[in-house]
Design goal:
DNA-binding; 48% helix; homodimer; three-stranded mixed β-sheet; two-stranded antiparallel sheet
Chain lengths: 151, 151
DNA sequence: TTTTCTGCAAATGCTTTGCATGGGA
DNA sequence: TCCCATGCAAAGCATTTGCAGAAAA
């Protein structure tokens, strides 16, 4: 991890922690662990993956607690949920705001491409449909570099 | 429904039917009903909604058959599945190719906004991430016109 | 001490699957 | 007639929920 990544991760962690504290939610070891993992994760983990990581630190942790913590953070707009119909949602605690993704349809890797903002597009869409747009989701599905090699 | 809509719907229906025939799938009344509904639908129905419509014609139809037919059409790229994590996928048989949607977060209405193609964006993303992009999904979530009124 | 959180287990709800029967071609 | 498709019921599975005990404040 690059130095600025660990810095960003730490900032995110503190931001989430402060938010929980300021809203009088209790700071438990399990919540701290989930916060740290979500703040640091670059790979859009599943609930199960977060669960496994928390378990190495707190073996008694239950999956239900992971889901409850994620739901709490979702409600506070501190985690972005990428929902998939095949039952394996992914979570992004590093960038909890709507942004585009590229998703490998073979290995399920998810990355964030750097592209221009979609704000103008959002305004245009809102005008044409009469919708008041709150958030969006833009996913490109395909094969990542590695998966193109061994086909 | 405008005349050109019913024309388009009819064309889609025939296209799907021809495809099933040419691939030696059996033409059953249930499949015909699902095809007709999907070809005509402008509202991105759920499997359940398709099921209810088919039932008015063939009361013995089962939900499993609806899902099997949808799966068949998905495999033939004749229906687009919009997957949602809360367990209520939506289907588009009128425009079975990836395209943007606006989705009301209150009443769940889904509409197709008319916007420019995302092809240039797709190429740019592919170049920057090393992905070979196969398809995409762009959803704008917000409140539709009616839902803005009665809040 | 009080209130919230955790962890277990059971429930939920959409979707899929297995299998015997029925119906296209 | 020969398979494929249907329909029923059961299974799957990520996620949610209820509740009693544990732990934060």
């Amino acid at each position: 991890m690059a130095p600025d990544d660990s810095r960003r991760s730490e900032d995110r962690f503190k931001h989430m922690l402060d938010k929980l504290k300021s809203l009088d939610f209790r700071i438990t070891p399990q919540r701290l662990a989930v916060l740290r993992i979500l703040a640091a994760s670059e790979d859009h983990p599943t609930a199960e993956q977060i669960f496994e990581k928390v378990r190495t630190e707190f073996p008694t942790t239950s999956l239900a607690t992971i889901y409850k913590t994620i739901a709490l953070l979702k409600g506070l707009n501190e985690v972005l949920e990428l929902g998939f119909p095949d039952g394996s949602n992914r979570y992004d605690g590093a960038k909890p705001f709507p942004h585009p993704h590229v998703i490998c349809i073979r290995c399920r890797k998810i990355m964030d491409p750097y592209i221009i903002s979609l704000d103008e597009l959002k305004d245009e869409i809102g005008k044409k449909t009469g919708f008041r747009i709150h958030y969006h989701r833009l996913d490109f599905f395909g094969l990542c570099g590695e998966c193109q090699k061994d086909l």
